[in-house]
Amino acid sequence: MSRAPIPVTVVGGYLGAGKTTLVNHVLREARDRRIVVLVNDFGDIAVDSALIAAREGDKLTLANGCVCCSIGGDLFAAFDCAIEREPAADAILIEASGVAEPERIADFARAEPDLALDTIVVLADAAAVERQLADGYVGATVARQIAAADLLLLNKSDLVDVGARDALRARLARLAPRAALLETCAGAAPLELLFGDDPASRFSCTAPAAVDHEAMFERWSRADLAFAGLDALRDALARLPSGVHRLKGFVRLRDEGRLVLVQAVAGRVDLSPAAPAQAAAPGLVAIWPRGSTTASDVERALDVAINSL
């Protein structure tokens, strides 16, 4: 049986924005997710020693099933290592260098048929990003990094006052108008936003998985969804409230009798045929910052009452 493509999350941002701190956070909080983390150099990765199962050359294996590898000079070789891993990875996270453009790295993931681009996450240092953008040498690079984001993390937000944060949010929204924007400290973003929920096994909103940011976010989920066809699905997704940061899962197309994988991140929507290994019960999971929309608005956009199986 063929494997489903492995979702890839690319993490970018200028030097000092907090990318490695975010990677540490991911590895500590991965729980039951098997994540392969590809970084330029994992010398700064400092997960709890109790989690480290083995070190070998350019690979760090963790007791929770995650692996951290050094990319070195060959990204495709690192991809091959991640793709061939047994048991199969649930997700791949790539930490770009501080001067790299995450969109170009995402293009490498798009070119690999065994991978599926999930999210481009870019961190901006709240205390330094205005100065970086104004810098004649690096400003254009920083601006391109920010513009590539699906999810933009205004990191180290505790280092600036409320007025400065509001001004930064407005500036970043102009640079990345389609990105979802979240303020973070020490890179502590919910993994649901970085990787999405597992749509095959998590449909209940009554008992969501415990995360550090539980009070900040709300979820909606619904199993057994079907739409008349691809056009009806696209129309429904276009009506999603703008406050929804992520929607992911499988839906049935009645006119074709097939299952489609839906991934919507900050206005970017990807629809692809579900692989045989993904033939689970159809359903969708959405997540958004508390107060930015409501479950009833999400249901109304997707016409759940009409399109339920």
Q: Helices, strands, pairings?
A:
Elements: E1 6-13, H1 19-29, E2 35-39, E3 52-56, E4 59-62, E5 67-70, H2 75-83, E6 91-95, H3 102-111, E7 115-125, H4 129-134, H5 139-147, E8 151-155, H6 162-175, E9 180-183, H7 191-195, E10 217-223, E11 226-227, H8 230-238, E12 246-253, E13 258-265, E14 268-273, E15 283-289, H9 295-302, H10 304-307
Parallel strand pairs: 1-6, 1-7, 2-5, 2-6, 7-8, 8-9, 11-12
Antiparallel strand pairs: 3-4, 4-5, 10-15, 12-13, 12-15, 13-14
Q: What descriptive keywords fit this protein?
A:
about 300 residues, alpha/beta, Rossmann fold, Hypothetical Protein Yjia, Chain: A,domain 2, 2 domains, nine-stranded mixed sheet, six-stranded mixed sheet, 10 helices, about 30% helix, globular
Overview of the molecule:
With 309 residues, this protein is α/β, with parallel strands linked by helices. The chain has two domains: 6-194, P-loop containing nucleotide triphosphate hydrolases (Rossmann fold); 197-307, CobW-like, C-terminal domain (Hypothetical Protein Yjia, Chain: A,domain 2, 2-Layer Sandwich), CATH 3.30.1220.10. The chain is 28% helix and 29% strand. The chain has ten helices and 15 strands. It has helices at 19-29, 75-83, 102-111, 129-134, 139-147, 162-175, 191-195, 230-238, 295-302, 304-307; strands at residues 6-13, 35-39, 52-56, 59-62, 67-70, 91-95, 115-125, 151-155, 180-183, 217-223, 226-227, 246-253, 258-265, 268-273, 283-289. The protein has a nine-stranded mixed beta sheet, sandwiched between helices. Strands 10, 11, 12, 13, 14 and 15 form a six-stranded mixed beta sheet that branches. Helix 6 links the parallel strand 8 (151-155) and strand 9. The chain is globular, with a radius of gyration of 19 Å. Residues 198-214 have low confidence and may be disordered.
